[in-house]
Amino acid sequence: MFLGPLLPLLLFVFPLWNITLEAPQYPIPLGMDIYINDFADTHPHDIKNINLMNHYVGMKYIPDAIPEFKIFPAGILITTAIGLLIAFKANYKWYLYWGILMVLISAAGIYDFYLWEHDYGHNLDPKAIMKFTNPDGSVMGFQPPLFGTRDILNFRAHSYPQLGAFFLAAGIALGFVAFFLGKKESKQHQLLVKSA
């Protein structure tokens, strides 16, 4: 169980997610790596170029910081501390509770990411230089996919988890593995006690 709570700390080192935009006018695709506490260019000046391009259709600028960049790191540090405390002191049943807590926090993070993308892609400035509409006449949204690939005008947007997300998932999985191993060991111990 000791390794499970430590793996999410690698979110401070490796990106959690990546969004990439491919288009004929960009021989090198534009990309943005999303860390637990920051946005970063995949290639130099990518975020600046994305912001310039998005300005024409009325999308908000990708900010330097968002409130989540303070909340999520604190959440990871707190859950790591709780996980280590459980590993040192608690009954194996608490490994399950830690795993469930991490799944819920991760689900909340994904939902928050979806809301951020939705607002970013649909809450457009009505005074934008360029306006696009859907076939039904409604204003076209430019929301990138939460997961996978989507065509947006002449862009192909890709959105996929990165190494940090895999370390987080591995840490959560180890919490559940520790629970099942602890449960198995407890049953074997009870059988030995009964047979003695």
**Class computed from helices, strands and strand pairing:** alpha+beta
Unreliable parts: none
Radius of gyration: 22 Å
Helical coverage, percent range: 40-55%
Largest beta-sheet details = 5 strands, antiparallel
Q: Write down how many β-strands occur, each being a DSSP E stretch of 2 or more residues.
A: 5
Q: Please provide the ordered H/E string of secondary-structure elements.
A: HEEEHHHEEH
Shape: elongated
Helix count, per DSSP?
Answer: 5
Estimate the mean pLDDT confidence.
91
Tell me the span between the first and last alpha carbons.
29 Å
Proportion of strand residues: 15-25%
Structurally, the number of domains stands at: 1
Identify the quaternary structure here.
Answer: single chain
- Strands of the widest sheet, in order across it, are 3-2-1-5-4
Describe what is shown at a glance.
With 196 residues, the protein is α+β, with helices and mostly antiparallel strands. The chain has five helices and five strands. It has one domain.
Produce the secondary structure layout.
Layout: H1 3-6, E1 17-23, E2 26-34, E3 39-41, H2 46-57, H3 68-89, H4 93-122, E4 148-152, E5 155-161, H5 163-195
Antiparallel strand pairs: 1-2, 1-5, 2-3, 4-5
Helix pairs in contact: 3-4, 4-5
Describe the structure.
- This protein has a 5-stranded antiparallel sheet with strand order 3-2-1-5-4.
- It is of the alpha+beta class and 196 residues long.
- The chain contains 5 helices and 5 strands; from the N terminus they run αβββαααββα.
- It has one domain.
- Strand 1 and strand 2 form a beta hairpin.
- The mean pLDDT is 91.
- It is elongated.
